[in-house]
Amino acid sequence: MESKKGYVDLHIHTNKSDGVFNPTEIINIAFENQTSFISICDHDTIDGINEFKLNLLKNMNGINGVEFSTYININGKRRKLHILGYGFETNSFYILKLLEEMKQKRIYAHIDVLDYIKSKIKKVPDEEISKLDMGRYCWFDREVIKCLEDGKVDKETILTLKKHFKENRFSYGNDYELNVIDVINAIKMSGGYAILAHPMAYGFQKNEITEIILKLIDTGIDGIEIFQSDCSIEDSMYLKSIVDKYNLLYSVGSDFHRIINSDGRMIGCGINNNLCIEETSLTNKILEKKKYFKGMK
Predict the structure, then answer these.
(1) Is 233 exposed, middle or buried (0-12, 13-18, 19+ CB in 10 A)?
(2) 7-99+180-294: CATH architecture
């Protein structure tokens, strides 16, 4: 099974965080979509990288990747950001330390959710609950509700809990607990490149995005994901102008998670083929510095 030179997609999720498919399935979907240069960037974990490396197909290139949940302080306000790391050493103390920190925070947050549920339900389906991965970045409330449904908890109780989660906007536990400065430093000290993920997806105004990027430049950010499924052509050109002005790297990513119940985004292609990018300055840098791995299967 071989792939010709094709599209680049450096932002794909697997079931090691909040995606649906395992790394091997992701590779096969990428192949079918003529995408030959890919990176798995799961949230706050690199657990899928070994399977990714072992199963990457011949004539495909891969890059170590991760997506960190971070925050930045701007004008006294704490703003959430996702920072993508590429080409780092996977055994780096700096990377592993931050990943473990986030995992522990998430476990404690998920325990709090289960404690709340136990306070509302007389008989919790322990067998189903025991199968949950407590440290995984995911829609934990949805996974808990699925356990309750499988455990035959009455519908009225489940509807009450769904309403509670919706009103309180449970968002992946204690999310965005890492300072962006610490994350960028860890990526760079581990031999990698730090890239701002999907700048247009946070709901900021363009002047706010520009201000955040300028602060990130002072912090040492290497580049920006300027081509993304959620980006219009106008948005990408705006981001490209910043990249050109400040000599930053640029990247492309679909942010693919699933096929069912999605907005139609696909690996390599984005939404309605708004990506289909064959080259980026980040992939050129990765190739130049030999920070990629080749598929052999």
Answers:
(1) exposed
(2) Alpha-Beta Barrel (3.20)
Please give the Cα distance from 23 to 52 (Å, whole number). Answer: 5
pLDDT in tens, 230-245: 899 999 999 999 999 9
What CA–CA distance (Å, rounded) separates 154 from 138? Answer: 24
84 forms beta bridges with 67, 195
CA atoms within 13 A on the CB side of 267: 28
SS3 28: helix
**CA 78, CA 157: separation in Å to the nearest integer?**
35
Residue with tokens 């971070």: 70
**CA–CA dist 77, 89 (Å, integer):** 33
Question: What torsion do the CA atoms of 188, 183, 245, 206 make, to the nearest 10 degrees?
Answer: 170
The rounded distance, in Å, linking the Cα atoms of 87 and 91 is 12
Within the chain, which residue ranges are assigned CATH 3.20.20.140?
Answer: 7-99+180-294
280 backbone φψ class: left, alpha, beta (φ>0; ψ -120 to 50)? beta
- Helix, strand and coil content of the chain, in percent to the nearest 5, comes to 40, 20, 40
Q: Sheet containing 249-253: give its strands across.
A: 178-179, 65-74, 77-86, 193-196, 223-228, 249-253
Give pLDDT tens digits for 158-209. 999 999 888 876 554 455 579 999 999 999 999 999 999 999 999 999 999 9
Q: Which two tokens stand for residue 58?
A: 């011949």
pTM score, two decimals? 0.93
